[in-house]
Amino acid sequence: MLGDLSVIGPLAIIMLATGAVAGILAGLLGVGGGIVIVPVLYHIFSRFGAELGVAPEALMHVAVGTSLATIIPTSLVSARKHNARGAVDGVLLKSWGPGILIGVVAGTLIAGAVQGSVLTTVFATVALLVAINMARPSGTAVLSARLPQGLLRHLISTIVGGFSAMMGIGGGTLSVPILSAFSYPIRRAVGTAAAIGIIISIPAAAGFIYEGLNAAGRPPFSLGYVNLIGFALIAPTTMLMAPVGVKIAHSISMVRLRQAFALFLFLTSLRMFYGLL
To answer: What is this structure's pTM?
Structure first.
């Protein structure tokens, strides 16, 4: 199985390329890269599941768990670069941190208890909503001139943490449009989202490792629901390319890029919904 170079070679190339694209988007949009990594791993394990020994019920869990593990180093690199440019809001991180952690714990526990089809549905649905929002020529609709305070602020951060853990993403996919809806500067939202990815990915990846330790149908060389081969191929290229995305983020208009990424998310969402039929 693992000695079949006709399978392993193309998979390695796809994963390296995925890491490069995810790294650029992580730095550029503050999305942690998971919004790219999860669907690619999902399609890889769907296409080559028989050769790799991946059972259908473990497919999405492994994609999400592996993505979360790769987000750890990517978020660290991206957040450091954004912080050097003064684009990380430490006050907001302290305010959102507890709610995000609560959401991550809840989301990880739910993910470990449900079938892979539930995670796929969650990912496809949220990706579709985010795609619609990102495709707007005028950007995210503004709801208020300032971030909410009190219970609502904690509720928002908990939702971001919970859904991000279930989807295998770093939080920027949800936090950037949410922050933008409350008139938060886009580049500061992107930089802060990169730091939020650290808070999400470390406990969530640990949870997926624990939840998957005795799970059947995982691919070879997996620690829980984290595939170590996928991590070893994707993580270095995401770390290498994340600073490139950061540099681009501070030098270009992001409207067309957001719309192109929205198209990718839209097609990804449709493909995942189709796979559920």
So the answer is: 0.86
